[in-house]
Specification:
The chain is mainly alpha-helical. Helices cover 66% and strands 0% of the residues.
Length: 134
């Protein structure tokens, strides 16, 4: 177990070192941001793994996100109508061929399914409808 912790710690330092090494301007590397990120990572890990109320909070947060994804699925069904019906698309085109479907088997997680649906509608694809300048 100690060996695995050492390997993880070594990998963590290696990733930070690689980020510093490929930085355009190493003198301006954001060490403060890195230290804050690492500190938050350890704090969240301690909260989730060592306290019962921290674990309960993150279970609750996970349920909230799942509920938001359910709302997204309903919105998808409203916008795309029968195209968002996974049973119909599976029947017509086979499993895994329904890109817009809320329960697409291609997507590895609910978050990527939500992003894929929104990227189809263009929500995350462009910031404005104006063409870029110059």
């Amino acid at each position: 177990m100690t060996e695995l912790k050492f390997i993880s710690l070594l990998g963590w330092f290696t990733m930070i070192a690689v980020a510093w090494a490929i930085s355009y301007n190493r003198r301006l590397f954001p060490w403060r941001t890195v230290v804050w990120g690492v500190g938050l990572q350890f704090t969240l890990a301690l909260l989730i793994l060592k306290t019962p109320w921290g674990a309960e909070f993150f279970v609750f947060a996970g349920k909230v996100v799942q509920k938001l994804i359910q709302f997204s699925n309903e919105g998808c069904k409203f916008v795309f109508g029968p195209l968002a019906d996974s049973d119909l698309l599976t029947e017509k085109f086979g499993p895994g061929n329904s890109v817009i479907s809320p329960s697409s088997s291609r997507a590895p997680s609910s978050l990527s399914r939500a992003f894929r649906r929104c990227s189809i509608t263009g929500a995350f694809c462009r910031k404005s409808s104006r063409p870029p300048r110059g």
